[in-house]
């Protein structure tokens, strides 16, 4: 009886500790080649349908000047996961060696060491998927295409040996369902989910059921991108409804960020879909200038939402510049991680709650290939080779008027 009483008491203490856990869950949802225009709340185009993302935006903050760390997939992913400018560990472009990244401490490792359950879903693009667990992720569901993929959990969130798992779902739906299953599994302890949808990146592979949501005359690549983004939106709805089901909405900090702008390939040619892994992905950066692979606004300013109902006031449009690097710094703050050595972002929480009215960043800087740029206040200086461009983003967000000669 004494043993039973002791076990009962210990269980009660454990349940109580879960119930009073002050640290929030953290979810990073990351999209791939997702243009600035393709978010309903941005109001830039009329054909996009993202009701769940719009609801997430209304519950939190739309960062209208939210920036990626690079205009290409690999460096932007390395930057956001490490929380440092990726050039510091020589991850400059998609062809860079991963040796530097492999020596860095990711936000997943920091959170795992702090007691968080951690899981990765979808696109990795930072080395072999079998090595993802070495970067702080306990669970891996690395589905990003309709072919066998590496996973150590099943679609319903149960453990399995790390090996190829044949897909039974469209890859975007599979990632969403697996993420929801992990929420169910860890509803009583803090968790960090990195949900990295491979969309609307080419190849454009939306099932017909999603394509049918967008009838009417339009480029087929545009229809496919809208369909893939609709699948992502459904996934966001599944994730947020699962949080609500377990009373976790106000206990969860969510960031939704794009890795870089859409690749327009200048002319947005509507070439046949047929599995082509290149070309325009159908997404739009309207009204911003430029595209993926450029440090102009269209290449760097992406959809950027932050929500934590009950802590961050909802319905906000935040116009000060923020960076994807700020995700790791903010996550460390809310997770009460004291050692933030090396992090280069800013904890955004006091700025988004209104406690701090100042601008989070004095300046933001970027470098990619032969391009470099700095934004200080509303001024943005961009260099490409021997050319210089200076824009006043307060009056010229579309970067149409180069003021470099006027303000040498």
Percent of residues in beta strands? 15-25%
Radius of gyration of CA atoms, rounded to a whole number: 21 Å
| Helix and strand sequence | HEHEEHHHEEEEHEHHEHEEEHHEEEE
Strand order of the largest sheet: 5-4-8-1-9-10-2-11
Keywords:
20% strand, alpha/beta, Alkaline Phosphatase, subunit A, 16 strands, four-stranded antiparallel sheet
Kindly describe this structure:
This protein is α/β, with parallel strands linked by helices and 408 residues long. It has one domain: 3-Layer(aba) Sandwich (Alkaline Phosphatase, subunit A), CATH 3.40.720.10. The chain is 27% helix and 20% strand. It has eleven helices and 16 strands. An eight-stranded mixed β-sheet has the order 5-4-8-1-9-10-2-11, sandwiched between helices. The protein is globular. Residues 1-19 have low confidence and may be disordered.
């Amino acid at each position: 009886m004494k043993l039973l009483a002791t076990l009962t008491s210990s269980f009660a203490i454990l349940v109580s500790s879960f119930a009073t856990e002050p640290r929030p869950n953290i979810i990073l949802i990351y999209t791939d080649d997702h243009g600035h225009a393709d978010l309903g709340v941005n109001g830039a185009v009329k054909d996009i349908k993202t009701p769940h993302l719009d609801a997430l935006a209304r519950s939190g903050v739309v960062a209208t000047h939210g920036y990626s760390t690079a205009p290409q997939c690999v460096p932007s992913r390395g930057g956001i996961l490490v929380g440092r400018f990726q050039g510091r560990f020589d991850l400059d472009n998609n062809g860079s060696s991963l040796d530097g990244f492999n020596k860095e401490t990711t936000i997943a490792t920091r959170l795992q060491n702090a007691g968080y359950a951690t899981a990765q879903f979808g696109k990795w693009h930072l080395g072999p998927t079998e090595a993802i667990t070495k970067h702080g992720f306990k669970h891996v569901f690395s589905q990003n295409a309709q072919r066998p993929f590496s996973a150590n959990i099943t679609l319903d969130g149960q453990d399995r040996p790390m090996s190829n798992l044949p897909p039974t779902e469209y890859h975007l739906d599979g990632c969403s369902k697996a993420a929801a299953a992990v929420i169910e599994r860890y509803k009583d302890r803090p968790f960090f989910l990195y949900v990295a949808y491979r969309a609307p990146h080419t190849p454009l592979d939306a099932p017909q059921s999603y394509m049918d949501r967008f009838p009417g005359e339009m480029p087929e690549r545009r229809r496919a991108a809208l369909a893939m983004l609709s699948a992502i939106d459904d996934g966001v709805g599944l994730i947020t409804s699962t949080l609500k089901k377990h009373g976790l909405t106000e206990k969860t900090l969510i960031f939704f960020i794009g890795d870089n702008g859409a690749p327009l390939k200048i002319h947005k040619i509507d070439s046949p879909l047929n599995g082509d892994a290149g070309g325009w992905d159908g997404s739009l950066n309207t009204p911003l200038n430029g595209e993926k692979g450029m440090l102009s606004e269209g290449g760097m300013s992406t959809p950027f939402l932050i929500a934590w109902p009950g802590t961050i006031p909802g319905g906000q449009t935040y116009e000060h510049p923020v960076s994807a690097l700020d995700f790791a710094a903010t996550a460390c703050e809310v997770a009460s991680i004291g050692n933030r050595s090396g992090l280069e972002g800013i904890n955004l929480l006091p700025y988004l709650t209104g406690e701090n009215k100042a601008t989070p960043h004095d300046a933001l800087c970027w470098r990619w290939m032969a391009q470099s740029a700095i934004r200080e206040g509303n001024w943005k200086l961009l260099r490409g080779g021997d050319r210089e461009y200076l824009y006043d983003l307060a009056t010229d967000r579309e970067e149409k008027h180069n003021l470099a000669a006027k303000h040498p």
